[in-house]
Amino acid sequence: MEKEQYKKLEQNVTPKPPYLKNVAKAFFVGGLICTIGQAVSLFYMIFFNFTEATAGNPTVATMVFFAMILTGFGLYKRIGQCAGAGSAVPVTGFGNAVISAAIEHRSEGLVLGVGGNLFKLAGSVVLFGVVSAFFVGLIKYILVTIGVVSW
Amino acid sequence: MVMSFVFAFIVGGIICVIGQLLMDVGKLTPGHTLSTLVVVGAILDGMGLYEPLIDFAGAGATVPITSFGNSLTHGAMAEAEKHGLVGVLSGMFEVTSAGISAAIVFGFIGALIFKPKGNID
């Protein structure tokens, strides 16, 4: 069978994802996680003198902590199974990817297992984040130097 | 006060919907989806568009993974403004420090105290 024929056959056989249902679930779960994040932000702004601009940093760390607890008890996967991107896109999904890899490879030892696999799943996010930030920063620097835009 | 929660819910929800559509309609894997969103966040900050979104939506913009790209770029540009080209590298992790360090530290602690359940990721 030709490659393209196979592709067509595969497309016909694969069930279509329930788009609307998935979108609704992603919206509600993702929105809910961000609302919890907003409560954490307010907590840092009221009790620890963070401003709206700086509260994001400790908020993200706190959300990652929540992700560790949920991942450790095996609850995050259950949320993820019904929420799809709703639980993957918030930073808790990033935390879950790191922490689940760490727990999974614990049996291979702390150095080679946990150390070597910590960023097995989340590494691509760090890589593409840093590389794109580098090029965006570089382009902005060049544009400022030649006087097209200002900082 | 109440409205800040509403805006966080709506904007955060919309960003997750975009991720869901990339996965369902665009047929991307979760890894590709998250990488795409991070790059989008970095580019939006380069054009100066992400900061207004944070002012408007608070955690609705800082909790989704797009904010990771945003804060990497933000740190890089803030430092480049002060110290020139080398600042792009030295400022990179300045703003987003807590997310990365929390993930590493809690990942290590999690590996020490939790046992694998076979259904954790």
Automatic annotation (TrEMBL), chain B:
Instruction: Name one matching Pfam family.
Output: SpoVAC_SpoVAEB
Asked whether the keyword S-adenosyl-L-methionine is assigned, the reply is no
Q: Which domain of life is it from?
A: Bacteria
Q: Which UniProt keywords apply?
A: Membrane, Transmembrane, Transmembrane helix
Tell me where the transmembrane regions lie: 6-25, 95-114
Q: Would I find Membrane among this entry's keywords?
A: yes
Alphabetized PANTHER family for the sequence: STAGE V SPORULATION PROTEIN AC-RELATED, STAGE V SPORULATION PROTEIN AEB
**NCBIfam families assigned:** spore_V_AE (TIGR02839)
- Protein known as: Stage V sporulation protein AE
Organism per entry: Lysinibacillus xylanilyticus
